[in-house]
Amino acid sequence: MKLRQLFIFNLFIAFPIALMCIIFPVWTFGLYDLVPDTGSIWVTRLIGGSILGYASLMWFGSKTASVKTRRAIALALFIQDSVGFVGSLVIQLSGEVNFLGWPLNVLTYGMLTFGYAFFYFIKPEMC
């Protein structure tokens, strides 16, 4: 796998999630068995916009010829996915959220974190 392919793979994960957060925030809360209020719906939409921004980075990263740009995008996505992995793991292990798909959530963030770490830290020449 090349970094460009990882960007595209991640794009197909991020784009639908971003749209769900923006368009269907109450339904998204239902996935986690949470009851939303006005503030949390607003924050969910903001997070959806941020995820959409990251998705645009993935798209442009897959198209650019600049290795330096791809590496910078990989670092940004490594940071974002690392936070997502740790946050998902902590909240799920706390038992405060009843989300049946949590192993997939943690696994996906873990794989993406490892993938970006691989390209940025271990094999930067493959960027």
Topology:
Blueprint (H helix, E strand, L loop, with lengths): L2 H21 L1 H7 L6 H26 L3 H28 L7 H21 L5
Jot down its keywords.
mainly alpha, 127 residues
What is this structure, in a nutshell?
Helices cover 81% and strands 0% of the residues.
How would you describe this structure to a colleague?
The chain has 127 residues and is mainly α. The protein is built from five helices and no strands. Helix 1 crosses helix 2 and helix 3 packs antiparallel against helix 4. The protein is globular and about 45 Å long.
Please provide the ordered H/E string of secondary-structure elements: HHHHH
Number of helices: 5
What is the β-strand count? Answer: 0
Largest sheet: none
Shape: globular
* Secondary structural class: mainly alpha
> Overall mean pLDDT score?
93
Give the % helix: over 70%
* Strand fraction: under 5%
Q: Distance between termini?
A: 10 Å
Radius of gyration: 15 Å
Q: What is the number of independent domains? A: 1
Q: Uncertain spans, ≥5 residues at pLDDT below 50?
A: none
